[in-house]
Design a protein that fits this description.
This protein is an alpha/beta fold and 309 residues long. 40% of the residues lie in helices and 17% in strands. The chain contains 12 helices and 13 strands. The chain has helices at residues 11-22, 56-60, 80-101, 138-151, 153-157, 175-185, 204-216, 234-244, 256-263, 267-271, 279-284, 293-303, and strands spanning 2-6, 26-31, 43-47, 65-68, 110-116, 127-128, 160-166, 168-170, 198-199, 201-203, 222-226, 232-233, 275-276. The strands form 4 sheets. It has a 7-stranded parallel beta sheet, sandwiched between helices. The protein has a two-stranded parallel ribbon with strand order 6-13. Helix 1 links the parallel strand 1 and strand 2 (26-31). Helix 1 crosses helix 7 (204-216), helix 3 runs parallel beside helix 4 and helix 8 packs parallel to helix 12 (293-303). The longest helix has 22 residues, at 80-101.
Length: 309
Amino acid sequence: MRVFVTGGTGLVGTALSRELAAKGHEVTLLTRSPRGRPGLSRISFLAGDPTQPGAWQKSAAEHDAAVNLAGESIFSRWSAQAKRRIWDSRILTTRNVVDALARRREQGAVLLSASGAGFYGPRGDEEVDETASSGRDFLALLSREWETEAMQALPAAGARVVLCRFGVVLSARGGALKQMLLPFRAGLGSPLGSGRQWFPWIHLQDLAGALAFLLSRQDAEGPFNCVAPEPVRNREFTRALAAALHKPCFLPAIPGPLIRIAAGEFSSVLLTGQRAVPRRLLEAGFGFLFPDIRGALADLLERRGGQTG
């Protein structure tokens, strides 16, 4: 299979491209800066801006599948300008990918499009699977519109569309976990707010495996929660991370009002969450290598010395 990937040089895209190449697929990664990147077997790089129509769309149309991972990081204070960048980086990219697939001479392509567990909005202790409705906050509205754009590939290109709702991706190489390591290694890790908020997460290796699995399953379509089967509360995650680093965890929680002052609207991501479960992945037969948080963190931080994801 020839697979075209947007956002392919990021944390998830790098892991996925290596997973696909190892399985014998040909992978093309779209990047704004392909120069100087080392060539890897079965992996090539193509210059292009996915938020803009361009010559890259012709190449995308020559592939059997597209995996849409591009998007500005949400981990920042959300000014009006930041929210616009976050929104446009996802919506415009997805629209352009769908337009590219519509140019294919034959129908039957596959589109895996990233989304997030934030689709569901804050849900308290409610367990949510893929049948749950969407929320109403910024991330929920963004995820819903993002998925709506992706679903246009069905009528426009006759594509099989899979909506992949990611939890927080854990890797010691980057992402949220890497940002947490410095204070925790200094013995300063503590819960956020009440600590009762649910934390949907997934080990990077399981996410790459799940995406490759969904590409290969001809009957896989629609939404899939790409999260570990054992979500944890923030305070449980805090204790597990401190234990994996062999550090104490005795400090009081950081007060919610202080986090709101420091992070603004983005604080809602830190202080609320979703008890999301991967019902459809499990029903389809996907086997998680790291279903529990302690095992995942041990793999990332102990056996690998915190150097790889």
